[in-house]
Amino acid sequence: MQFDWHAAIASIPALLTGVPWTLLISFSGLAIGFVIGIVFGLSRISPAAPLRWLATTYIEIFRGTPVLVQVLFIFYGLPQVIGGPINAVVAGVAAIAVNAGAYIAEIVRGGVVSVDAGQNEAGLSLGLGRAQTFWTIIWPQALRRMIPALGNQAIISIKDTSLFSVIGVGELVRQGQIYIATTFDAMEVYFMVAVLYLVITLSLSAALRLLERRGVVGA
Predict the structure, then answer these.
(1) Cβ contacts of residue 115 below 8 Å, gap of 6+?
(2) What is the number of alpha carbons within 13 Å of residue 171 lying toward its C-beta?
(3) What is the pLDDT of residue 123?
(4) Mean pLDDT, rounded, for 38-52
């Protein structure tokens, strides 16, 4: 069987209709996941034991279960609890948010504890409150150190969206499956799906390297 380049190229317009959904689900989920990650990451290092236990439980549950199971639970299981259906795109965004949030929480924890304790003491000695010291001195340094790990998480979450074709989300893989149903060019179409995922993830990696060269990351 020979690879048909014409069939591969012909599939591109159909596949491109899935790119906006892939990006929408990825970056919407990551934005919400970042907020979740900050809340649970800071709770993980809180002096209050109940907050630490709650954060640890959340992190272990969502890091220890596959994102596919999580989206199936949200799409098929949660409607039985709330008494109504959940849109497939909303379910995809929610799955990325809770899954990425668990990983980002650990990234936040690691970033904050990596800042020298003397920075906190310096802020307090200048007359700043604890909250002001954290958000003006500790957090900016921690955030710069988190960026490479956050970029890796973004790439993982983008690839995870390929699993959401099982609930009918019209992302890249789903559009490929629909196109294959009419052309039967499976090898060529899945090859182009892989190429488009590479274009997205390599573009994100290039943006991160640009940040590194400009000294924004890891200072």
Answers:
(1) 138, 141, 142, 145
(2) 26
(3) 81
(4) 94
